[in-house]
Amino acid sequence: MLCKNTANKLTFNAFLSGTPARDYIMQDTPYDEQISQAVKMINDADYVLLGAGAGMSTAAGAQYGGKFFEEHFGEFQKIYGKNPYMQDMYSAGFYPFPDQESKWGLWSRLALTAGADLDVTPLHKTLLDAFEGKKLFLLSTNADHQFEKAGLSAEQIFATQGSYNLIQCKRGCHPKTYNAVERFREMDAARRNGRIPSEMVPKCPVCGGDMAMNLRVDDHFVEDAAWHEAEHRFGVFLSEAQDKKLVLLELGVGFNTPTIIRFPFEKLAREHENINLIRLNVGEGATVPASLGERAVGIDADMAKSITDIVSGVRGD
Ligand SMILES: NC(=O)c1ccc[n+]([C@@H]2O[C@H](COP(=O)([O-])OP(=O)(O)OC[C@H]3O[C@@H](n4cnc5c(N)ncnc54)[C@H](O)[C@@H]3O)[C@@H](O)[C@H]2O)c1
Ligand SMILES: [Zn+2]
After folding, report:
1. Cα–Cα distance between 82 and 94 in angstroms, integer?
2. Closest ligand to residue 250's CA
């Protein structure tokens, strides 16, 4: 027998989209007017779906390169040279390390710096203040747990690309992840000349092979039970919200992985007249599909400012 609600069920896979809008425009509405439009969209909504990308952490103060990198990764620049890898945390992770001791020497430092020890939550907290009384869910490609640290319940978060706190079998031989924060701290303390002692190198408890970060970089990314539970909760939220007063608030999502948040948000708004889209970004990232008309607002400004202004408007400060 067919379940009555089947037609309205929306899964994460059905939500994903690889198709960009064909009619991007940069809106020429003045900034203050756009903020008012965004405030009205939030006030009118019963459901809010946040979609956060790397720009959210950047706007909140997270740093990855420049002086910050030299300060925290200077010893690795000395060992490996100031080549294109050793410029920022993202690139450094892809260095072709000669052995596992060297790989975890750098990665334990990187995982802690970009994850467990990162604390840029004031902007995240400010943002969360805007949604009292509304049903809220966060879809994020960030692995740095900043919304959780800011107080959002883990039940309301689906972080699709993994976590800086977790490791997995490199080959993904079994569907489990392991919290490695304490091991990272031990490795960080024991490192000499960029390498950790051999006995600290993590090994897969099932196949005995190498371990890797639980970050989606290849086809071996492990989606463990917690990942699937979060995926399910996301589907439940979306299935319930898609026909209601829903606003999509996109936070610093660019064109690196646009198929997870950016394009799907456009598609969702295109297919449902009850859904509005607020896109916060800088430069071309702030373009929105012209065909959405007044149901989309694309605000081209540093989110440290646009978020603060929107939240003040919603709270009536
Ligand atoms: N914090 C993290 O966990 C982290 C950090 C970097 C990369 N990643 C990974 O790399 C991938 C990157 O994809 P993505 O789409 O998130 O990033 P992206 O680099 O494609 O886009 C980031 C966007 O944020 C915007 N932005 C940057 N600073 C901003 C500011 N102050 N105000 C407003 N907008 C700002 C940029 O214009 C850009 O469009 C993700 O899949 C993620 O897994 C994660
Ligand atoms: Zn294994």
Report:
1. 14
2. 1
Neighbours of 189 (CB within 10 A): 9
Residue type, 43: N
pLDDT tens-digit map of 218-238:
999 999 999 999 999 999 999
Q: How many angstroms separate the alpha carbon of residue 57 from the centre of ligand 2?
A: 32
Pocket of ligand 1, candidates 281, 288, 305: which has the most ligand atoms within 8 Å of its Cβ, to mutate? Answer: 281
Domains of the chain: 24-59+120-161+224-315 (3.40.50.1220), 63-117+166-215 (no CATH)
* Distance separating alpha carbons of residues 262 and 20, to the nearest angstrom: 8
Q: What is the mean pLDDT of the chain?
A: 96
Q: From ligand 1's centre to the CA of 4, what distance in Å?
A: 39
Q: Do residues 1 and 265 touch, judged by C-beta distance below 8 A?
A: no
Q: What are phi and psi of 225, to 5 degrees?
A: -60, -40
CA distance 136 to 130: 11
Task: Provide φ and ψ at 251, rounded to 5°.
Answer: -120, 95
Q: What interhelical angle do 303-315 and 31-44 show, nearest 10?
A: 50
182 burial via Cβ count (<10 Å: 0-12, 13-18, 19+): exposed
Residue 7 banded pLDDT, cuts 50, 70, 90: low
Is the model's pLDDT at 31 over the cut of 60?
yes
264, amino acid identity: P
Structure token pair of residue 301: 């400004």
Rounded CA gap, 137 and 129, in Å?
14
Residue 308 scores a pLDDT above 90: yes
Cα Rg, the chain, nearest whole Å: 21
